[in-house]
UniProtKB/TrEMBL annotation:
Domain of life: Bacteria
GO function terms (MF aspect): oxidoreductase activity; zinc ion binding
Protein name listed in UniProt: Zn-dependent alcohol dehydrogenase
InterPro entries tied to this protein: ADH-like_C, ADH-like_N, ADH_Zn_CS, ER, GroES-like_sf, NAD(P)-bd_dom_sf
Cofactor(s) demanded: Zn(2+)
Keywords for the protein's UniProt record, in alphabetical order: Metal-binding, Oxidoreductase, Zinc
Stated family: Belongs to the zinc-containing alcohol dehydrogenase family.
Residue ranges constituting the Enoyl reductase (ER) domain according to the UniProt record: 8-363
Listed Pfam families: ADH_N (PF08240), ADH_zinc_N (PF00107)
Amino acid sequence: MRAAVHTAVNEPMTIEEIADPHPKAGEVAIDVLSCGACHSDLHVLKGELPFPTPAVLGHEVAGVISEVGPEVSGVRVGDRVVTSFIMPCGRCAQCTRGNSEICLEFFAHNRAKGLLYDGQTRLFRPGGEPVWMYSMGGLAERSVTPATSVYRVPDEVELADVASVGCSTMTAYGALRHAADVRVGDAVAVVAAGGVGSSLIQLAARFGASMIVAVDIADDKLEAARKLGATHTVNSSDVDAPEAIRELTGGRGVDVAFEALGSTATFRVARDSVVEGGQVVVVGIAPKGSVGEFDLATIARRKLQIKGSYGAKPQRDMPVLLDMVARGQLRPQDAVSRRFGFDEVQDAYDALNRREIQGRAVIDIA
């Protein structure tokens, strides 16, 4: 099969012919239709998130199951599916407590070493050299993943529309529902209106937020944010964003501010934009070593809540999100601004690095 292989930090990915992967027990193989271009992949390409090479990145996969390994039930060959970027093992202490979004095996095996849960990769070059997997290695014609990360797409939903549900949408849902528990009437700010930020805006509107303030440094992204449901926008390169947010809220600040990029600057905006007793939810994945500062006395006096959110609970929440899509309550395709062919995969990430992508870019593999 063809795969986009990441060989070295800050070097372009190359399309290579590597061996077709096959599933083992508890796994399925997917013929990939499309894969979203996520900022966390970009962090790996730039060396901001350490990961072994050579590797195949990509974790927002939509495709069709082409092979099922032993001990798999609930899905079969021919099913149209999307994947969750978190691949719960279902057995570790966190999974059994209901915290599958922080599965211990996922972080120990996959994120640390590029392996699946038997301690091996499923990807190899023709000569037998291993190729490591970032999640399921979705930037390839065929992908293998644990069946715990695979979800059927309703018949009435276009498969090409939903690749991003498994990462940007699921990440946003986890932040809104589980970390912040946003309620009807809450005022929220979304700091950075990129892929995850766009999903936060869409879902906050579905959750009944009374005010959704999108903050970014690019006017085109802010215009797109309004179309997705933002009630107000703030260009933080033109004004003091926390001050502008307080003006919009009558001096009080928002109930919840979501930091959706992973940077010191955007964390500062989120931190300084919330009301007393408000929540600052860090969603963006920052480069290793990034530090966000806060004054301990201010946290105590203003009763601020600073939370981290890595994603939703896949087995509980992915069916909910796909049902929302089927009902027309959520349109992930509206956040997709550009589509690239497989041979243009590096172009997609270069455009993402130049901040040229509004919402999400998708690479069409097949």
